[in-house]
Structure formats: C-alpha cells, structure tokens
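We emphasize that the prediction below concerns an isolated chain of 80 residues; any contacts that depend on oligomerization or on bound cofactors are therefore not represented. The input was used exactly as deposited, without trimming of termini.
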Amino acid sequence: MRTRYVAGQMELETAVEEYVQRGYDVTTKTDARAVCEANDWGNGWVHLLLLIFTVGFGNVLYGLYRIMTADKVEVVVRDE
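Result of the prediction step, given as a token string:
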C-alpha cells in the first residue's frame, strides 16, 4: 500500500474523488484518512485466452490474483 499525503480536509476529499473517478473503491474513510483500492479484474483479452485454453479455471485464478494484487492508496491529512 502506498501513502499520499495531503494538506487538509478539502484536499483529502479532492484526492479521494480523483481516485473514485479512476475506478478505485473507497474501503475506509475518516476525517483524516481514506483508503482507496483499485477495482481491477484484469484484462479482457487475457480472460478470453484463458477461457479458451483452460475452460474457465484459469479465469478464476487470474481474477483472484488481480484482485489480491490490486493497487491500494492511503490518503492521509498531514499534521503540521
């Protein structure tokens, strides 16, 4: 998980909204901290190839792998 620091509450809201627009889900949020996780099931072409060559078993494994390794960002208000 990577951390992004912001100066105040308004910047926290703006940063979280940017991540939501990029397809991230907000998993936890407080006044001083938010955790955003990418909503990523993988590439459609890879799923198609895996469907053809593994009769669907590879799709499940690939989807789980992509979810487990999805990008997570912690947005934190810096105390100064």
